[in-house]
Amino acid sequence: MKISVLFLFVVLSPATAFLSPRASPRVSVAQFAYSGTNSRVNVATSTNNPPPTVAKRPEARRAKELWESTVPVIIHGSSLRTWSFANPNVARVQILLRTEGRPMHANIDLWHGPDNTPQKVALYIEDGALRPFHAYVETPRSPNAVAVYNTGQLEFPLAAVVEADILTEPLPNLVIGNSPRVIQGGALHTYPFDPTVQSVAVLLKTDGRPLNARIELLQGPNNNKQVMEVYSEDGLERPFYVVLETPGSGNVIRIVNTATMEFPLTAYLEPVVVDSTYPPGRFW
């Protein structure tokens, strides 16, 4: 009798009891390793033997260091991820986006209170590994939240890092070395530069009026490698600062003021990473 009861217990036991539990799936981020032009820069410490690829400003290293010290968040196509910053001491955040080589379509919004979006960026990049996105967003008067929405399809995931920035100086001071250019509403201006320039810092600001602009990186005729539609409620309080990766030759940055004539903007551009291994030529 005992043997039959034991036999029935074994037969009626769930089959899953004899199976090892499944491990929870994990998303690998190895393919999203940082590989932009800033990944091989060296900040010059001596004028006698400068490195071949020189970062004109120390913050050129910051993107690579932040990416390597932080686990990126994978955002799949048609997905949204938000980062909240309730600390009043966080006045600026740094945003890094990249793919494993596929195109990138994304919207970046700054939320400040309910139904209030003082800054927006609509982004397209042809190759998110060769030209990762690197921008700074001002976040005065907490609490603030940054939303990153992958508007691409499911086959085009992206990796994102959003962290509070340690810079304390105002954004215009980062590109103060170059003369600004005022671009009236409805006007555009282009900036061609040498292949020695591997990345360029772009700052757009106003005198307190709204900022509406489009930034395009072209390489060849009508060949857009990167396009950004930028909106800021107050271009003085929340200017837009982005570092564009410009590998190769024939790169041109085009800035279009998409607002009306009553809303001019001021544009600053400055090379960030310069590769001295290229032969000398026209610079800017």
From TrEMBL:
Keywords: Signal
Signal peptide per UniProt: 1-17
Family annotation (Pfam families): DiatomPyrShell
Source organism superkingdom: Eukaryota
Protein's name in the database: Uncharacterized protein
Species this protein is from: Fistulifera solaris (Oleaginous diatom)
